[in-house]
Amino acid sequence: MALSAPYRKAQRLLSAWLEGGRTARRQVFTIRAVLPALDAADKHRLSRWLAWLCVAAGARGEWLLRRIERLDPAFGASTAAALLQLPIEVGLSIVRDHRKSA
User: Domain boundaries in the chain?
Assistant: First the structure.
């Protein structure tokens, strides 16, 4: 499977942004400029990849879905839809709701 250049660029920027925390605010504008260049298949692949990242982050106690929704509402919605289609049982509450301890 060969991945397109816009997909690889978007994936690289998104992973750096998601792992960089709040210090990577400038990257948001670059990511928002790259996302429209993706075709439908690449958008689907990226949403599925983001869904798996949300599951992995949820297991570590991190909450990525809301950040993705704030970045781009369409990608947030497609990532939430991709979460429901994963081959494992993952409720949106696992990756969306941040439970605070006492």
Answer: 5-96
